[in-house]
Amino acid sequence: MSFLHGILLFGAAAFLIPLIIHLLNKRKVVTVRWGAMHLLHEVIRQRKRKMKLEQLLLLIIRISIPIVLALCLARPVITALRSLGLGSSSLVVMLDDSFSMRAPAAQTTLPGGTVIQQARQDLQTMLTDLPDGSSAQVVLSGGSPRKLLDQATTDLDLVPKQLSEVPSMSGPLAANDAFQAATSALKDSPNAAREVVVLSDFQEADWKAVADGAALPALETLNKQEPRPQITFFRIGSDLAENLSIASADISALVAAESQPIGLRVRIKNHGKRPWQDIPVHLEADGARLRTARVSLAPEGEAVLSFTHDFDKVGDHSLSVRLEGDSFADDNAFHSIVQVRNQLNVLLIDGSPGKEPLSGATDFLEIALEPHTVAAATLKDLIRTKKMDLRKMRNEDLRQQEVIIMADVEKLPGHIQNEIDKFVKEGGGLLVFAGPACDTAWYNRDFFRKGEGPFPAAIKGQARADSDALPARILMQRFTHPAALYFNDARAGRLQDAEFRHWFEFTPQGDQVQRIFNLDRNVPLMVEKKHGRGRVIAAATTANAAWSNLPLQPFFVPLMQRLTTYLATVGNAPAWQLVGTTLRLPLEKAELGSEFTLRDPTGQTQTLKSAKEGDSVFVQSPPIAQPGIYQLQKVGTEKTTLLAFNIDGTESSLKALPPADIQKIAQRYDAAYADTLPAYQALDRTRRHGSELWQPLLLLLLALLFAEVLLQQHIARG
């Protein structure tokens, strides 16, 4: 037996109080002889014996009351009932439902079964073995961890039923987030015996950092709970070691003009130890196969293929690349959506017009955004620019524009500032380049407005690299912004070749401000902020060559094109999203209450209804569980939006963490380890789980109090 609050057992010492009082109150007997005493002697002897018994019983009851009360407060837990199958417990299972769990299982009773199917079968057996009165909860740990049920249930048959209705594909497992969700689920457990089981394939990509010593703060918190739960790492392995995948597919333009060639650079990865020869790779557009290339891959090697294609019709188009050859086909395709437009209208506000060629603040921007027009080429430019001198601007000039670019603008007149603020809030895009003419006091006071205005960050001041010092350069790192993803491959351009001699120091604040690029001086070069339905990007340098050689770099053209098209289409569906995420598209306010039909790659449909949150109207779907092209159509119209969903590439390496490393993690956190269901069952039988006894002790305490009152009254009457 153990106690949850053992220190309160010292309260049992209060039994000394009635004992001491009893001893102090014992009266000394005084013998007085008188003549008739012999007549009462026998009666007194009998009465004295009865009184001693009553007093002794009363003393025992009074001593027992503080002892039982202390036991009740200390919450005793008996540790033998579970071994007899009598003690109920609370079980929380962290079930890994990530993409890698769809691989074939190494040891399974299911013909052709996958790891996730075997995990669900083992979970059902674990639930069957639980004693009556036990509760269970499942935390689906792939992607964003979420509870299977609103709260733990004692109806254990409900868990497999609910699991059968949940899709089994999500993003990579985030161990610490999953343990946080398990801690939350365990707080409401009704039993003192509590257990957490991590049911996973323990993919190396998910657990390698933990095995190398990375902390799991959420697991440390879980271990500090009282009563402390039993934790078990239960590994279900896969027998699939070889796998090919499309690691990435970078598109040169997510928005294009009619007949404008689009480049697609595909990176194919071999995650196994065997070589692959002559693997066919297909390019598909709008569901039709266009052409096929072939590639060979060395063990754990990569290959890169390039395709080009152009669309001759305005609208949304799907562009996919697919490979053949291996048995694990879920990651053998990559899908994207390309928007074909007639044109994008961009307004250039030049704060410092130049008299000489390429001396104005927007001259380089004009060339970068309309390269074919400037060169008098036959190819069509998607972007159409309109350059305006700030001194001659009117409110009407902002109409029909999709993006506004400000370059070296000192400050905006009040009426223009209000119109630009309104333009962004209604879904427009704004790109602001700094410059020597900028009035930083105005930007901070009127344009930033302590975070309430459209400008993303306050300006701390201007910085520079001395003539005898090295210039600042773009910090090379893994870019995550949609407009910067293309530059993760060095073949898209060497961003670090740009040199910066002057720049403004931004001080971005809040979670809504995102850094797109940073300088190697630990300061942001470009930051972004959402403002209403639109977005604003601010650059800390000029758009011409006054402060840097950025406009002279070959990558300046694709960089400006991508930033502009991103801002112009930020309210539209993204080119692609990850499986396991939720589709959420903004709508016009007039579309509140409208119904939409979402068709998945297999042709199955579901109906979605638009909703409102604050001032925003949107349509939202449940988490998407299958990769491919989806079609979202507004009921009663022909308006269709194409959506693409892909698998996270980190899940394609099916290499599992060695069992020895899993055991090291388990030992570090005082947890157990099992790799088969019989091993887990044997482990479970040897462990002792407790059942609390404070409820019957409380009833005993009430009975003692009641008995003490009755006995006291009986003695008083006698």
Automatic annotation (TrEMBL):
Pfam families documented for this protein: BatA, VWA_2
The entry's keywords: Membrane, Transmembrane, Transmembrane helix
Aerotolerance regulator N-terminal domain ranges (all copies): 1-76
Superkingdom in the source lineage: Bacteria
Domain VWFA: 91-202
Record-linked Gene3D superfamilies: 3.40.50.880, von Willebrand factor, type A domain
Transmembrane parts of this sequence: 6-24, 56-78
PANTHER family noted in UniProt: BLL2463 PROTEIN
Protein name as annotated: BatA domain-containing protein
Source organism: Prosthecobacter fluviatilis
